[in-house]
Every structure is written in C-alpha cells, then in structure tokens.
C-alpha cells in the first residue's frame, strides 16, 4: 500500500525517484575506558583515512557542481585531517587516558572549537566551524554511521529533509536531484524559490515527511498539487509518468513563445523579466526569453563560502551578468542578508524575530565596510550594460537617502580615481514593508522605480511568517489588502512618471497575473521557468477587461472571493 502526504506545492514538475534522506544521523556514543588501546588507535586512523578519501571526492564533485570558490572549503577540511596539532593529542589521549576513540576525538576537537570561538578574530571563528564539521565526519566513520553527502549523489533521487537551507539547495546537482520534500517551509522560502529556478519539483511544509520515508523508498513528488506518494503502486507510477510526460510536452510547446513579444489582445505590452541568484541562472533566463533581469539577489554571491567576496570578485560577477544581458535592463539588489538567508562568517547575533531584525539595508547602512565595496563593484560594472540598482527592505525615506548618499560618494571616489561610471543608472527601492507602500506617493518623488517584493510584503501585511507552514493559510497574495497596497504603489509611481515592477513570487502566479495586469503593473519579474507560461497567459488576456476585474477585486471581502472572481473572468 502506498502512502500519501500533502504539503505546499513549491515548484512545478513531477519527480519519481528513490528517497535520499538529508537528515542529521544519530552520532551518540558511550564514554568508555578501554583495556586495549591499539584497536582504538586503529579505528581512529582508519576513520581519518576514510574521511580523507571521502572529502577528496566531495571536493572534486563540488568543484564541478558549484565551482572552485565554494569547493575550497573542503580543502580547509582536508588540511585539518593532516594537522598534527589535532591528530597527535587525540592519539595521546587514547594511549595515556585509555579512553575509546570517539571520546578522545570529541574531547580534543571541542577544546579547539572552544578556543577558536572565543577569539576575537573572524578567521579563527570560521576555523572553529571547520573543526566541528571535520570532527563530525571522523566520528561518523569511527561509529560506522553514514553522513549525508548531497554533493556525492550520482543517481536520480528525491531529497527528503526537515528543511533545506539556501546553501544546501545550492549544492544540489540538478542532473540527479529530481525533486525535494521538506517538513517545514513555505512557497516563498528561499529554498523553494531556488528549486523553481533550478527546475526541481518540490513540495514543502509536509510536517512529517522525514518520519514517513526511509532511505531508498520510492517517492513521487507532484510539485503542481503538493502531493507526495511514498512507495507508490505500479498504477500510481504509470499515472504519474503520464502526468510528467504531459508536463514536459507543455514545456516544449511553451518554448515556441521564447522570442514572442508579450502583448495583450488589446495591444498592451507587459515586460517579463527574470529573478536570478547567480550568473549561473543566466542560461535559464536566456532560454526562457526574459526581457531583462528584474531582481538579481546578490546575497547568493556571499553565501556558501568562508569570507566576504572581494570588490573585484563582485565586479566580475556583475559585469558578467550585464554583458550577457546585452543592454537589457538588469536590476541588481544590494545585499539582502538576514531572515532565512544567513552568512555564518558575519557572526550576527541570533535574534528572536530575524525577519523583523537586523537585515538588508539596515545592516548595510550600519556596516559600510560591507556596503561600500558592493556599491563600488556595481558602479564599476555599470558601463558594461544597462544597470539599475535597488535597495532591499527600505522602511523610511531617510534610509533611501542615506543609501543614495553613500552610492554617490562612491561614485565620486571612483571618478576621482579615473574610473568610468555610467550616468544613467536608475535607482529604486523594493517595496516590502507596508509603511513604505503607505507612503509610496512620497517615495515616488525621489526614486526612479519601485519593485514590489510581495514575498515579504505579504508576510508583514498579514503578520504571517513566510517560512511557517502552520500559518500558510494566512499567507494570502489575493487578499484585497495586498491588492490595494499594490494599486497604491503603482498609481503613486505613475503619477510621478516612474515605473513599478514586482519581483515577489506573486508576479508569476497564474491567478495574480490578470489582477496585476489590470492594476497597471509595468514589469513582472519571476523565476525564469515561469516566464513562458506567464507570456502565454498575458497574450490571451485583454487589459481593458482585466482593469474591470481588478477594480471589482479591490472591493472583495476575502482572498477566496477574489480567487473565485478571477476564475469567472479567466477561463
Ligand atoms: C520579496 O520579498 O518579495 C523579494 C523578492 O525578496 P526576497 O524573496 O529575496 O526576500
Ligand atoms: Mg524580500
């Protein structure tokens, strides 16, 4: 008998493959004294050797999958395995204290971790994390427990985990990872967003998937409906293979629209742009016929590594994107760290409500040593294409003015150094905070454009954490309150002759698109994989009719009512 679970459909597609559990294994052991030390020394030395072989393979795979920069972390791990200052004390402890290998290893490595962590030195703090990681790997080998190694996957799998962090997701090899299913998370958590750009079918927020699935079980993931089937029957496999086939056929069909212009039946053009996390997403952007980049989430440049990317490194990354987009508009968002996107090497204090805390522009304005190199890199890259810059999580006009002042200072510095900077860089803000939407008319006088970040705007307006599957019923893009805020922002920008885009996931949502078109949204920016579907839909709609629809939706009493209304307009 198969078993069914339902979660939140997070990324389109159907996956059928064996489960790969990405969960923390049990590494508990008894703190025993031993009579014979030789077998313990052997166990320890064998575990070191096996860890070396394993880490070398991981390192080589990571280099292929995620690039040499990010693979370098494993070089640091390999060095620890060769470090006599760690190896020798463990061997001495086994020999002199006559304790078993797991006890000696953990006692020695935790001493190092404590010392490194207490140092007021970023580099040493990072070494603490490395030692902890390596110690875990060696311990697992001593105990004969297998650690999950997602970068070593070399057959088709469905990843099962409690949650996936954005950096876990970044390590997945798209060639083999067919889908993923998690216990927690919402449709707009960043791993869900990444799964869409990687075209991996995913279902999040199932609560119990890690308890229901065993390693190697057959799993079907229906990312279109949110259903997960564990150990399906032959009939179920056939039915879903057919569904997968239909999904791929439709994708092929959509490819014909790649070079078409997105024009409504009554002749109105809508700009369809893509959201990207790294320059590696550009192939998808180009293949899916995006008219520009509406959101470049630069924080991914800072993730999956041990230290900040240098100004030069950032310059190269921005230049690549601008050049490849060949003068199409590229909206780059400055660093938006915080919330569910962490940077361990910044050692930021843990907060009770990270989504309401020290993040994004708040952090950048307070730590110019982080902000200024990014602005300089962007300004230097600005002559290689059509650059727009926007600031995330702006709550007050003062924040925008401060950010703009710093940008202008860096521009002046560069010009003094003889570096050319484009003169036509548009400067905008993300509208993600209800206070900013409420004052859109005031902001509109000073910014060049708005980009509505509904992923956050919805969570702050409805006071419903975007990561929480428990309150996901309150996470309502079609709630009339959201539609009214969106209208207010669009109208305010148009009054000042400016434009408004939307880069939250709502911009690519089939039910929202008719409403947004009716509200007069200028630019829709979404996962590249949603673009062709959105294009087909917009080409079948009349803006005039959608204006009437949007007008009626603004007066609805609930999100459900809006949804029913849209369905009655759009067949
Ligand atoms: C948003 O909040 O809508 C947005 C696009 O930013 P992010 O999802 O990266 O928070
Ligand atoms: Mg946001």
Main attributes of the structure:
single chain; 571 residues; alpha/beta; Glucose Oxidase, domain 1; Enzyme I, Chain A, domain 2; TIM Barrel; 3 domains; 8-stranded mixed β-sheet; 23 helices; 14% strand; globular; binds phosphoenolpyruvate; binds magnesium ion; cytoplasm; magnesium; sugar transport
Rg, nearest Å: 26 Å
**Biggest sheet layout:** 8 strands, mixed
CATH superfamily descriptor of the largest domain: Phosphoenolpyruvate-binding domains
* Overall body shape: globular
Q: What molecules are bound to this protein?
A: phosphoenolpyruvate, magnesium ion
Mean pLDDT: 92
- Residue share in β-strands: 5-15%
How far apart lie the N and C ends?
A: 37 Å
As a percent range, the share of helical residues equals 40-55%
Number of strands: 16
Specify the structural class.
Answer: alpha/beta
CATH class of the largest domain: Alpha Beta
CATH fold group of the largest domain: TIM Barrel
Number of domains: 3
Give the count of helical stretches: 23
Low-confidence stretches: none
The CATH architecture designation of the largest domain is Alpha-Beta Barrel
Strand line-up in the sheet with most strands: 1-8-7-3-4-5-6-2
